[in-house]
Design goal:
By secondary structure, the protein is an all-alpha fold. Helices cover 41% and strands 0% of the residues.
Length: 70
Amino acid sequence: MTDNPKDHPTGNAEKDPDDWTTGDEPMTGAQASYLKTLSEEAGAEFDDTLTKADASKRIDALQAETGRGQ
């Protein structure tokens, strides 16, 4: 018998963006806004064509580069 996911509500809270079912959709407005800010701080190019999954990965990389979100 499989565990009920509701018994462990945070057990799957962090999922690899490659595994997101909506990862290939355009990034959200919140992602775009934050990514633009991070890109400006890092002196990096802002790509407004990223998918949700790719935007999440880029945000993680820029956070590591800028020290934000730590």
